[in-house]
Amino acid sequence: MINNSIANETVQAKGTGVSVIPLGIIGSILNLILVGIILLSKKLRSPSYIFVLNLAVSDLLMSVQVSFIYVIDKASFELTTLISDVLCKLRYFVILTCYSASVLSLAVISLYRLEVVLQPLRQSSIKFIFNRPKITVIFIWLTCIILNIPVILTIRYDDQIGVCDLYFPLGQLYSSICFGILLTLTYFIPLVIMVLTYHRIGIRLRATNSAIFVSSSRNNHGLNHRTKIAIKFLSIATAIYMLLSWPLLVSFLIQAILGLTYSAMYHKSSAAAAFHIIANSVTFMVSLINPILYLIYDKNIKLEIRRLNRIIIAYLFRDQ
Q1: 50-81 burial, b for 16+ CB within 10 Å, e for fewer?
Q2: Which domain range does residue 141 map to?
Q3: Residue range 198-226: average pLDDT?
Q4: Which phi and psi angles does 122 have, rounded to 5°?
Q5: pLDDT at 155 over 70
Q6: What is the 3-class SS of 64-106, one letter each residue?
Q7: Going by C-beta distance under 8 Å and a sequence separation of 6 or more, which residues neighbour residue 269?
Q8: Where does residue 306 fall: left (phi above 0), alpha (psi -120 to 50 degrees), or beta otherwise?
């Protein structure tokens, strides 16, 4: 009976790995295309696209890791417990660090758009962030690495069911604080920043619209319309990303507060175990959101895609 229970847990947990592999492969391809387009384009050199590039790189790393999640599980099962444990810790450290970098990049992009909209009116106190975008990107990654180092101590390889699981070597309180801080700093605070920023941008654009209507300037009206479209696109992309990205961290936080490993949670409530699996799958989907939206709806990126297509076609048919 016990063996059957363990087998069921193993199948259910590893089923998550198999189900998210297609998401990882598609995400890897789309993010790689987006990274390539930005790197090859001389026109996409503004701070905004440097932050978008950083966003695509972090999503690419997450997608690649997700693509090999089943391979890692299978390899872990064949290796010693120590090596399997290291692989588990590394897996979740990479996933959560990349996720954190993506969220902070989205927050910085929102602040940059606010800076662009308000620039004629004031001297910004956060201008240094955009004057040195590469340094900002490095700072984002260093911050995310430091924030996620404590997570390493909360993950281990469960050799009974053959999957990565939460555990409490430093106590339940440590794990709860760890995931609580992580959720606050990499989800709630960036979310508040983005909501307030885009709300302020919306107010500013409405005020500008009224002024333009009074002055009847066509050039300004066209510029304002394009800005509104760009802001609407960024708002939608950010909203979808944040809507899909919360379940995994919340799932870990609930586990930590209740002091439950995956195995214990499976025995106590199959519904809670199912939520954890769904949370993993939904969170891994976020690496697909940004490349799809940017490749389809970003005007500048679409222009670069057409330009690169013409170059590729001309190269392929150069001898004909």
Answers
A1: bbbbbbbbbbbbbbbbbbbbbebbeebeeeee
A2: 2-316
A3: 61
A4: -155, 165
A5: yes
A6: HHHHCHHHHHHHHHHCCHHHHHHHHHHHHHHHHHHHHHHHHHH
A7: none
A8: alpha
Task: Determine the Cα–Cα distance for residues 119 and 228; give it in Å rounded to an integer.
Answer: 16
Instruction: Assign residue 202 the CATH number of its domain.
Output: 1.20.1070.10
CA–CA gap between residue 134 and residue 47 (Å, rounded):
8
Q: What is the pLDDT of residues 233-257, one digit of tens each?
A: 777 778 888 887 888 788 888 888 8
In this model, does residue 220 exceed pLDDT 90?
A: no
Number of structural domains (the chain) is: 1
3-state secondary structure of 180: helix
Helices 69-78, 47-67: inter-axial angle, 10-degree rounding: 40
Query: pTM to 2 decimals?
Result: 0.81
**From CA 181, how far away is CA 286, in angstroms rounded?**
21
Per-residue pLDDT tens digits for 161-173? 667 777 788 888 8
Is pLDDT larger for residue 22 or for residue 206? 22
Burial class of residue 284, CB neighbours in 10 A (0-12, 13-18, 19+):
buried
Could you tell me which residues come within 8 angstroms of residue 187 by beta carbon, excluding any fewer than 6 positions away?
Answer: 103, 242, 245, 246, 249
Give tens-digit pLDDT for 119-132. Answer: 654 555 566 677 78
